[in-house]
User: Fold these one by one.
Assistant:
Number 1:
Amino acid sequence: MKNSFNPAVMSLTICSVRRLTSWAVTTKPRLYSTATWKPRRTLIENLGTLAEGEKVTIAGWHCQERSFRDFSFSFLRDATGSVQVVWANDMKNSFNPESVLAIKGRVRRRGEEQTNDNLAGGDIEIVAEAVEVVNEATADLPLTPNLFHVTSEEAKKSLEKYLPSEELRLSHRYLDLRRQSQLQILRQRACIQRNIRNYFNDLGFVEVETPLLFKSTPEGAKEFVVPATSLSQKRGGKGAFYALPQSPQQYKQLLMAAGVERYFQIARCFRDEASRADRQPEFTQVDMEASFLSREQIMNVMSGALMSAARAVGKETAISGISCCAEDGTSGLFSNVSDDISLHRVLTYEEVMSQYGIDKPDLRIAFPLLKNVTKMVSSWENNIPFLNAMKSAEGCPSFENSPFSRYQPGVIAVVLPTAGRWSRSKVEALKKLAGLSDFKDVYSSFFSILKRGSWKGGLSKHTSVGERESLEEAIQGSEGDLIGLFACNHLEKAQTIAGRLRSSASIMMDPDSSWKSRATCLEALWVVDFPLFRLAEEDGLAAFEGREWEPSHHPFTSPADTDVPNFWRALGKKEYESGEEHSNSLPAEALGHILEGQSTNTSYSSLLEGLTSQHYDLVLNGCELGGGSVRIFCPHMQRAMFNVLGIDNGSTAFSHLLSALSSGCPPHAGMALGFDRMMSILLNTSSIRDVIPFPKASSGTDPMTGAPSRLSKKVEEYLKQVL
């Protein structure tokens, strides 16, 4: 027999409520001490285990009222779920949304027709007998979550659709976190961290907390500095500062010198850079370092760490491209790590740049790969306008005499399937999204394929039918495709802008297009063999401003074993060109290579450009999830690296590290995974701000607290005196 609401039963319930002495319906907020709140409550997620009519006490947040003639409904929500509460109208007073209530009542099963399948616990309700207002919310809350603990994905999307702006939600984050989705993310964050800790513990890694107050050293990104006022006064001078760590990089290398051998930490890091959808000024990373492990072994360890994180949210089987193969089958606290990476998808830096135009390719995009058509285009008989413009640009080397190099001139073709049918305004929007205007020295030409050998726009007037057909065949272009050609005196720049256009076009594809990227997939790969150095950009890393070259990773990355001789030769060439003298304390082998470098005809820049590093990145869905490298553990090579990078104060700024490397430091390697970025991808959120409890806005500010803020005049005057 179905349970239905009976006003007579409710009337009897009201009479019993009026006889209660310890509980009463309170109509005004009351002040409570922690000793006042005594009732033992039942969590809402456990109500389903109780019998029909059983007395229960629940507590939580009040929301969603609906009133009828003789009774009314509301919902009470706690951290575990929501339940419908039935009230008699002469018993219940109107409570402001989000007020904290404690309710005594009886469990009642709802009939099949009244059961709410979209709501966790939707088959039961509580008939209220008494209520206490523990803490009433104000009536003018700027944000009322008012969202239930629903079960179906469709219901969740329906509720999330009406969210207020992100700025308002960040300004009142403590209210926004009451939403079911946000509470679930916090739990998943804790679960993922627990899984990662257990994983590293099982492999014999030691969790070590490293200091947050560190020394300012030139590592790359801009630092946050902290004035050390008391130390300045004690030293009798001014200007003493700490720096918040960009990463625990130097400390974990010091731990290797200390003999820890296997270290990990879920670390807080700080970088003074503009916030983006995937970047924050303070963030969390899964940091590790290990002695006597190879690049391949580190890759296996961190693949396993990612898989353990995915397992916490039930997505370990959804990731393709990597495998959890860290242990080699041995047992014991210090389990050996396998060096077999055959189960991973691994591409070199040169491969990803030539095929995808980016060092973190999104393998969900099924577009044709980029094609280098330099030889074909440069051999065409007619004058090609955009190619002539590039050739006449200042500093452009000739196509014929330039050796293969990522800094040689080149022409890259990108095929955008079906985009040839797009409107002109949509194509212009694509160019804007890809940021074509950011590359002033890249020359481009666009055309659409009408049919084989027939083009519209671009080079259609400057090419023969045979040339057009040959290019179509080379790039696998088809009718209706949009083709982009990019020429630059630096091949890598042409690859980069073509890669941007390719990625942007996948975003702009119609939702029902077969070329739309597969949003639900998780495609991972490892990228290895990065260049050791790169040409410094105009707005390059703060630590290397004014330098021609900067490290692709950081100054502590070791060159590939096969490139170590050329590294020393480059140093010798630099000394020869600048008139510097090398140190006779270097090992004999290094001195021999330095002398070879001084006598070689190869330029210093060419030697540096050809060096490969032992740097490796883990990429997931087009996002650099983390990076690492085999470290320099020889003090002579580390000093030489500082010399090449022009870090004049290297011996002073990094004296602690050089001293540790000189004390018998073992060979070591490490890596760090961006924890917030990893969570955002695994949980498919639009921004890492969605997975951080209290994130900064895109401007880098905290709308809730108003940070950063000006100091008081008294504090400012004090700092001026001591600093």
Note: The two ends are 80 Å apart (CA to CA).
Number 2:
Amino acid sequence: MKMFGREWNFRVTLRTTPGECVGVVGNCHQLGNWNHQNGILLTKSIVNSSDGNEIWQGTAQLPVDQEVYFRYFTCIVLDHVVENDEGNKRDLIVRRWETNISPRLIKINSSQNDLIHIDLFGTYNGETRVDRGWLTKETVVQLKLYNDPIRMWKKSLHGKAFRVKVTPVEVDVSCSNTVRDGGIDESWDVQDVRNAVKSWPLIEVAAMNNGDCEFKLQQQFGQLMDRGSYLILQAQVTKPESVTFLVDFYAHNLSIGDSPEHIGFCYILQNNMTQSDGSATVPITSPKHLAIGQLKVDYLIVRPISGFECEMSVSFARHWKHSWRGLEVGHRGAGSSFKEALKSCSSIRENTIASLAHAAKHGADMIEFDVQLSKDMVPVIYHDFYVYTAMVKKLGKDEGSNGNTEGHVDMLHLPIKELTLAQLQKLKIYHVKENTRVPKLNDDDFDDHQPFPTLQRALEHLDPHVGFNIEIKWTMQLKDGSFELNNPFELNLYLDTILKPVLQYGGTRKIIFSCFHPDICTMLRMKQNKYPVMFLTQGITAKFDDYHDPRTHNIPMGVHFVSAIGILGLCVHSEDILRDPTQVALVQSRGLILFCWGEDNNDQATIRYLKNLGLNGIIYDKIDVHSAKETKESIFLVEARQEQKELIKIASSTSGS
């Protein structure tokens, strides 16, 4: 039975933004058991006029006979009336939180002895780490402006630079039991809406082509949209289906002290955003209600993961040890097995349990594999969007048939998304590059060699000391406007379905998510707070077609994007690094982790060169052939063994004393 008799005074100094409160969450009931909704809120007591920093404090009765671990966080408090319930319901929207790998500690029987100690938000044990929150009750709506999205028809406005400001407006007030995002009084006119100062909904903006490209609160006259700019305007709301967005345009005035001139405005309505992602073109109207141009905007709607709640005991989202350099990552396990050059192919079918286990056995620190959904929404491991399945032709149906069916085989080209897990695992499936008359791999009788293992099976079956680099497959739009695949899945549901088994069965395994699609990376970051995300990019290349989204076009643009959304780093195409190795320093100067992938990596000399450049991870094929490791073990296994030895040593010294 725990004894609660120790009053603890929490004090922390930091600078908050308008509407932010400060809270404490920890491993005991009084501090919410790592659930931020049940944590305690502190009170602002002092504001330092010289630097703007504040001191927040509060007290709690803590157990005497238990080590108490805790973290500080900042949040927006949303109070709203709930029908058939007494009082108000409180929702805390986490804005920032301390993510040092080890939380703060109050030891057993320790007391403050009336000493005034003030913690510095995010800093303790010689380390500073603060990250943005993740989605809990709120939804994020991103409006993306790029490729000169503002077209003004009025000649006097041609060639001008504009500032863009977004204001959410509540248009559905029929539900009394919900928070009104940006709700307005019916007596207000549109100017009142523009001028209202509120801490919720939050509007932030990031410019991808600026040195300082992190999201910041929107200013009074919005953000400058230069020619060639890439802007992301981001709104956090609690009921996106009832919010419309007022977009104002101001002529950018270079004269100091002059207010920008209001040129016009437009509305982005709910029926302009009918899916999780898409684009809309809306007319721009002058203050005198004349049509003067149009705005083309891409949008993304990110909802919190359904059916799973993240807690705050630990986050690996941006945790990376200095010793984790030059990690060897098995591409699709033991390597790609369907290349044109047979000598470069793995002898084990790629992306199978056997292939993943083979790479782990031969010293891979991590294994990279691809995940997508079957028709019945099961996360499976497979690279390509399409497969072939064989169909034997019926007797007598062929023109000129002599009744012999030998060799009469039709190949049906099918997308993975049209086949259930049972169909994928029971049908005779051929890779798109296999010769169907003479299959490359005769492995039908070996269970671990079968394609389409489930993600859950990989998480449960493989050595927990080998890390996973899980690439999320999703269709990309090419620069010519075409798509790799017409994907029917709702994007939020698609990602939630993949995330849940990882969050449930990941255990202590080191796991990284990665994707070529920038929006997927954004969503993976916002939907969970535990695992890191890396942006896959091909950059400048002569080997692949360019994608439509400018964030994919080169490494510097990728650095801007990754810095803006606060993910771990980039996984770049080796061709681009070998073309210009100075880009390694560019990435690392921003505190980002850097992996690389590509055919060029399948060479011991190149692997050595990339390690010497300082890359954190190299993804390559046939790790059993190309790895120069003397001891074929994962670095995570080596470190776990060393940590265990140190714990035994400490235990022995304690018992001896």
Note: The chain has twelve helices and 35 strands.
Number 3:
Amino acid sequence: MAHTLAAAAGPSRARGAVSPHFVRRSIARSGKAPAATPSPQKVALKGGVSAFARHLELMTAVSEPAVHEAGSPLEALRARADLHGDATASAPQPERGALLAAMDIGTNSFHMVIVRCLESGRFEVVDQLKEFVRLGGGTSGFRIITEPGEQRALAVIRRFQRAAAAKGARMRAVATSAVREAHNREPFVRRVAEVTGVDVEVISGQEEARLIYMGVLQAMPVHERRALCIDIGGGSTEVVLGHRGEALATTSLRLGHVGLTERCVGESVHGDEPGASYATDDLLVEETRRAVASALAETDLRQMVEAAGGYEVAVGSSGTAATIAVMVNEMRRADETAAAAAAAVTPGPRSGRVNSAELTDIAFTRPELDALCARLLEVRTSERRAKLPGMNPKRVDVIVGGALLMRELFCALDIRAMRVSPYALREGVIVDWMGAVLINYTPSCDIRRTSVLHLAKRFVPESRLQSGVHVGRLARALADGLTRSCGLDAVGDRKGGGKKGKAAKKAAAMRTDTMQGPPNAEMCEALLAMRAADWELMEAAAVLHNVGLFVAHEGFHKHSWYIIKNNDHLMGYTPMEVEVIALLARYHRKKVPARKHERMRLLPPAVRNKVIVMASLLRVAVALERCHTGAVEGVHVLQRGSSTLLVVTPRMEADGTAADVSLELWAARQEISFMERVLACKCTIVEGSPGDSGEEAVRGYNGASLFSA
């Protein structure tokens, strides 16, 4: 059976065959298609270069790794548009603000996303649809599309088409493994076109992997990191290593959760539709696991990744990874509950309206995956497996194969932990389409920053948006000034743990000398523990702190919290990070944060302390932008012992005079007491001269006794 699965990973490309990626690069560089080598087969070249390139893609072995040269992402997208001209030109070219729909015709399920193109280079999701079709199930290797499967597919495609038409969206449909590998692929594609009018584009496995990576970049902040993306589908698994928008290496394995689950259960599966019942066979499960491990070893997957430079972060996408993450999270909660019960811990007062599970990142580790696989195999029947916490009822009949394959991929690639992306192929199709047909389109590189600005633009006018950005700069200036004046600058930017250096020792000594006494010593410890990523969350909260004005001015800080917590536009942030941003917006005015507050109790102690520190600085920064005019150009921090001086520099007006910052100073002085309590220091705010540094402003400060011995 190991040889069977190894063979299923796909034959090698014949010697001398031309890679479609080489064709794209050649066209991108020269503008001309390379001369086609006569083929023994009669290939109809009606589409010129486009038809020839597509023929090469369809003939390419899906399992062979493809290593891509670095180049301009825009050139690659435009080259692809030239190669697939009749695929994209069949629909009118979209404008910014237009609606686009991408349909993913998969082996197990069909997905469609409808989006609106945005000026920022991103898109906004308008609607999402998903139906389990099981197009490739019950066919002993997915080599044919059955008549029942075709009828289910046609019904779903018609529904998706009506949904897109109702919103006026232009549609692009791509088909993956089930259609790609089927002997009756062409009759199926013709049938879909005749019945529904939808032209289905059958993409290669490597093209599918590239599009998945492009989709992941729209949801995860991994553009600057070497990301290993794994997407386990029903009939194939795509693996891509990407960096800065370039797919450095891709491969597609003919190993999917539907086929592997069928191998695990043998003849016990009843039916090929989603939800079919079955019982696993231990011998078949172990035989399948060994065969998968052997197949992965023969594909040299690890060598491919290492040859491309290795990876820094692993990302999973699509249903298998998401289901594993949800089930692992449920297992964590059960373990925590059991541990609390064993320790006879009495939970604190709760209203029952919130729980900490909503703050859990969608991720899992290798030990957690091992434990889940063991749990799934302990429950032998699909009926009992459906009752496991976190199990998706429509995925219960394929989760065994998917989990086993994921575990073997973790072993083969030495993956220790994996985060899960909510975006995958269909979102990649959207980005690819936008890049091919929109003039001067460039995909966003900083998904966090772009999504924050997009959310702000939805709810506040441009003037308030710029004011929020300025508040973020002032808050960051306060944070940087405090860390530098305390000797913490080398600590605040640390990316991880480790031994304390000279700066940390200096900060610890200063904290001992000048910042003693609970609870202030604890807050100063939080300042010592701050990282650059924490200050970035504070800046995001500054930009978004006034979005609640869209609802009403009365209590708008609470409305801001609700909007930030309950939207799907903040991409690239974990649930915990979104909670922190929302809480900072909530506490930028009125009541100050306290540990007893309901939402604050949900946070881990270290995060809770950080929120209190950041809120104390944000409140002062918001006050320094009281008139929303940018009158305060900057703020400098000077510190000696337990005394802190904030020097506010006003903006220089066109007539050479300093802007009036009297109202801003008054407002900041109303907020400074909270910062004093948090950081255990005596703080004074003074006005400096435009363009002066903090030290220059201090020389002219009459209250020089602040730093007297």
Note: Residues 43 and 131 are 36 Å apart (CA to CA).
Number 4:
Amino acid sequence: RTLCRALDAACVLSVKGGPVAALREGFELAYATQLVGDAAEGGRRVCGREIREGLGASMASDMPPPRPSRFTDDDADLVAGFWVAAGPKAGRVDAALLGDGAAGAFCLTPTVTQSLRRVARALAFGRAPILLQGPTCAGKTSLIDYLARRLNVRCARINNHEHTDVAEYVGRYAPLPDGTIGWLDGALTGAVRRGEWILLDELNLAPPDVLEALNRLLDDNRELRLPETGEVITPHANFRLFATQNPASCATSGAQYGGRKPLSRAFRDRFVEIHVDEPPPDELAQIVKRVGGVPPSLAAKLVDARRRLARLRLGRGREGGTLLDGDAALCSARDVLKWAKRLGGSADKARALLVGDDLLAQRLRCPTDVRAVRACISQALEATLDDERTWASVRDVCMQQNVAPTAAMARLVQLMGAALDHEEPVLLVGETGGGKTTACQLLAAMRGQQLRVLNCHLHSEASDFLGALRPARRESGGALFEWVDGCLVEAMRRGEMVLLDELNLADDAVLERLNSVLEPARTIALAEKGGDALEIVTAHPAFRLLATMNPGGDHGKRELSPALRSRFTELWAPACSSREDLRALVATTLPDAAATEALLDFGEFIKGMADDVKPPPLTARDLVHWAAFVKHLEGKVDVVEALGHGCGVVLDGLGVANPCVEADALEACRDVCERRFAEICRGMGDVEDALKWDRAGPPLARDAHVYGAAPFALEARGDFNGDAFCDDAPTTAANLRRGGRAGPPRRAA
């Protein structure tokens, strides 16, 4: 098949220099373009030498060939030395000719031009689908987008994922507007009929059985059969199929791309494979200058900072370190372009250092790593930045939203605000109780936007984000089913903020269906919806996307793949640990200063315990719940007694935190903690009775109005008739008291 493709290409390609030059181009197309690095140029030289020596003819120079007779000036364009079918001339836009910093500007460096020439040659051949493979941020999708705009051709993009279905490609039977059931073409079928381009992004994320269903369309006879209708479609002459993918693992950078599967040899053999390399540093500087609009000297310094960061070997692991796979994980080409765009053409190195710190250092999870990255950027930019940055106050808005104005909250809000101002998706990573969700809610309030929250989980599907066919409501005009937009698509249409909570619980292969939303164009193709034309939703200018996750290793959660991670602006949200910040958090709910200090003292005592059996450390969330518990009891008991009951609730979880521990050891640990809390509260009053209330409290009340022990008796709705249940036994009574006490205020127990 490969040899025949090389000979077919030699017959089709119109190259100045005659059949010998055309034969060389055909063999390069079939054999050399999938080679990596220097091997590609070696393969090109071998093709030329063998053909030249075998045929005894000299190779002609690479000169623009004459336009083939089958084309006119209005339906073809010369791209990188090859005549390619194009749309109407009036709508063609060569983004490489746009000014520096212009929206959609494209930079043709030598490496990019080489990749462009390979793609143009495959397009001129026109008989085989094209597969572009390379590391993330290499510009695979951008290259196809540039060609589509230059040739004025509509190109639909489908982001593949773990649950991609054949129906998304070819179509399905679905309800029509008049209430009947009829066939709706999928995105691929529509492109085949109309002669458009289709881009299957992240091809190796789709299930293999779905991809194998396309074999006949990818063969030389090029037919698409619809089994449901029996129709056989011959593609329009201008139809072209592209695919992009990251390798299952990258040999050059060491990155592992989650969810990617090696394609079968039989399937890959049907494509013209083209390897797309990342541009070298000097070319990346040209791209940064062109796309970001910054001066050449500063562009070179940004790229030099990236080169220096690639050499850093930072801490690894959950305990303080950062999980970064591959040389480019800390600072990818996307990060450098974000860096340049935020500068907006400015040449100020001090501002560039501040922006670089926001983008690169503030994502790291260890203070030592932050200092190392900051020093590396400072050396590259020849500027300095204080070790301890100050953050703008958010006190006023925090007080309006009843949120503690801590320094950690001010930092998060300022960093997130800078990212959202430039339409960047934001990923907050941090331990539970660190205020990630609160920061998102606060930012939405500051911007006056509606915040939609979608909780991800292990079985999340693309339809949870994008939408699906649902049973129709009565007002739908008689249709049985109708398309209902998902949470993300609704927010894109209306210009709202959307929060994807616990992002890393969902599978990478599902999340990467959203790749196009995370890129600067901020679009999504609803291939699942079907219809006469593929619907492409472009985000409202006010739309913003936020995501939160706990670090990998926490109960089934894992780090995101490099391809997905590089599309976010990542920020580390450290747990609120300083006494000053914790005091501000508790004081927002509990104004009593002495009670606040008692909570903080007990939290520090638990944190410093060295015993094998001990309560779990009190997080900021635990302290705030304790404060809310005390506030809830205001007017029922005094503050000291409420503090004692709150401490009892904390210690009631000892057995959960220490499974398989003997009861005597748990009781001994509880006694130690109760004595210490009694000492902390000695100057405030007696707390002993409240600490022992669950075991030596009042008898349970049973009547038509209440059940339980005061002050946590529950409202009853009738006489107690539980003679078959013994609630007088000491252990049972203690458990009932604990259960009643754990409920307020509206907290799950």
Note: Residues 317-322 have pLDDT under 50 and may be disordered.
